[in-house]
Specification:
Blueprint (H helix, E strand, L loop, with lengths): L1 E2 L2 E2 H8 L3 H10 L7 H13 L6 H7 L5 H10 L11 H9 L21 E11 L2 E10 L5 E7 L5 H7 L9 E4 L3 H4 L1 H9 L3 E4 L9 H13 L8 H17 L11 H10 L1
Parallel strand pairs: 3-6, 6-7
Antiparallel strand pairs: 1-2, 3-4, 4-5
Helix pairs in contact: 4-5
């Protein structure tokens, strides 16, 4: 068979199509494109959207049209959305503001002999008079001294930022915590950086990795009558009094039967 004087087999070979494919195309070549009317509607919305509309936006303007059909027609006619290029500086800033975890640098090395080099921190809750208060503490692992604390009626970020705000800069000192929301928060991370300290975190769900602070909370709850407090102001006063007692008067068997402040002087004198 010939088409316009040219052998069809030769044409098919040149076009790299089958003979049956050629005749199928020939039967439908003159038929109108059934997608064309829908294409016109989609393109109008697409152009009005400055070629930035994806199929979801177009679907909102053409609710009667099936979303799969919109996607198919956009692919068929090459309606490609202009995607704004990502700003690398914004991406870097966003990354800096994300919550982050840190490796466990402490690795349960709870026997420390140099004061002011390794700290642990955590939060505990204290129920009283039908309410709850939250206590944030930073403790020196070497001496056992409570270095900073803050009591709040809520779990806002100020609970930990107020606590670490009481600390002095300590170059390369380690501060160990769990992986809780407060300690992975950019506000806390930035506060640690300003103090030139290094963050360390327990394994997820492993409270033994932060045993010194857990032990302290256990003693506090056993020894302090916090449940009888009628207000958070009274609770704060009792906690302040207990912290003074704990640091200056409470002898600890594992620290040569000295109070944390006495033991600090002992270590520094060595």
């Amino acid at each position: 068979m010939r088409a316009l004087g040219i052998n069809v087999d030769i044409l098919c070979e040149l076009a790299d199509v089958s003979r049956s494919g050629y005749y199928k195309w020939l039967r439908t070549a003159d038929l109108p494109d059934k997608d064309y009317p829908d294409y016109i509607n989609i393109k109008e919305v697409f152009d009005n959207g400055k070629r930035k509309y994806g199929w979801r936006s177009i679907k909102m303007w053409l609710p009667e049209m099936n979303h799969k059909k919109i996607q198919r027609i956009m692919r068929k006619y090459g309606l490609v959305t202009k995607v704004r290029r990502r700003n690398p500086y914004k991406a870097i800033m966003k990354k800096r503001l994300e919550h982050r975890t840190f490796p466990n640098k402490l690795q349960r090395a709870f026997i420390q002999t140099i004061p002011g080099t390794v700290f642990c921190t955590d939060i505990t809750y204290l129920p009283f008079n039908g309410m709850y208060a939250y206590l944030s503490v930073i403790k020196d692992i070497a001496t056992g001294e409570v270095m900073a604390w803050h009591v709040s009626s809520g779990l806002e970020m100020t609970l930990v930022t107020e606590t670490i705000g009481q600390m002095e800069p300590r170059d390369n000192a380690l501060i160990h915590s769990d992986q809780g929301f407060h300690y992975t928060n950019p506000l806390f991370i930035e506060s640690v950086k300003k103090l030139n300290m290094i963050q360390s975190m327990s394994g997820k769900g492993n409270c033994i990795d932060n045993a010194p602070i857990e032990s302290f909370f256990g003693h506090l709850k056993d020894e302090l009558d916090y449940k009888s407090c009628q207000s958070i102001e009274e609770l704060r006063s009792k906690i302040n009094e207990y912290m003074r007692y704990y640091n200056y008067e409470r002898k600890q068997w594992t620290r040569n039967r000295m109070s944390p402040v006495e033991y600090k002087s002992h270590l520094l004198a060595q």
